[in-house]
Write a structure and sequence with these properties.
By secondary structure, the chain is of the alpha/beta class. It has helices spanning 4-13, 57-65, 69-72, 85-88, 120-128, 147-167, 174-188; strands at residues 41-44, 51-52, 77-80, 94-97, 100-103, 106-107, 111-114, 132-137, 140-144, 206-207.
Length: 209
């Protein structure tokens, strides 16, 4: 059964990936003003009670260093954000805002609880990265990660998807921006020789643009 902390965020957490969302509301976040400095900063906040960051600064930097330098040039900051009460009402894995990328923490037990069955695209995407779905009873489901699988999911999917949003200077509609970011994650989120991933997938984006 979910812990007290998990129960408190259950409804919000399970809204992730709702079809047809236009992202009218997004989590409040720190704005990182563009500067003339070279390189990007990694800002690591306390994840919040009951949560943990699933990647480290070093892992983020190592992963981004594998991409062409031109892809990283516009990036001002990567923030490992804190989970707050407001953010729990509309949580997501990652977000792009301005020239910064935000990665959100997960529950300490690496188990996400849902009060509905997973949608096919959601199921296929998370399964492709090692997430394991379990139907507990009726419409109650949980998505179970391990430290390795959730790290893979964040570094090779979420992080690259959000970077795709940052680099997308052409599209303006939510749907077109999502399509570009998904394509970018497929093209650049897989390391040479890595396992094949699900290509037809969608998940909730907290995109302020």
């Amino acid at each position: 059964m979910p812990t007290a902390v998990q129960s408190a965020v259950a409804l919000g957490k399970r809204l992730r990936g709702r079809a047809g969302s236009n992202n009218a509301y997004v989590p409040p976040e720190d704005w990182h003003e563009p500067t003339d400095r070279e390189g990007y900063r990694v800002v690591s906040q306390d994840p919040g009670r009951g949560y943990q960051h699933v990647v480290t600064e070093g892992e983020v930097r190592d992963r981004l260093s594998e991409l062409p330098k031109a892809f990283i040039a516009p990036l001002e900051a990567v923030q490992l954000s804190r989970m707050t009460r407001k953010k729990r009402s509309f949580p997501c894995y990652g977000m792009q805002w301005g020239s910064a990328l935000y990665l959100y923490p997960l529950e300490e037990g690496l188990v996400e609880y849902f009060n509905r069955p997973p949608r096919p695209a959601e199921y296929n995407e998370t399964r492709a990265f090692g997430g394991r779905w379990v139907n507990e009873a009726g419409s109650q489901w949980k998505l179970i990660w391990t430290p390795r699988t959730i790290r893979d999911f964040y570094l090779n999917n979420v992080l690259i998807h959000e970077l795709g949003h940052l680099l997308d200077e052409r599209n303006t509609s939510y749907r077109d921006r999502e399509r570009f970011a998904e394509w970018f994650a497929i093209e650049h989120g897989l390391r040479p020789g890595g396992n094949a991933r699900a290509k037809n997938s969608r998940r909730k984006r907290c995109n302020r643009n």
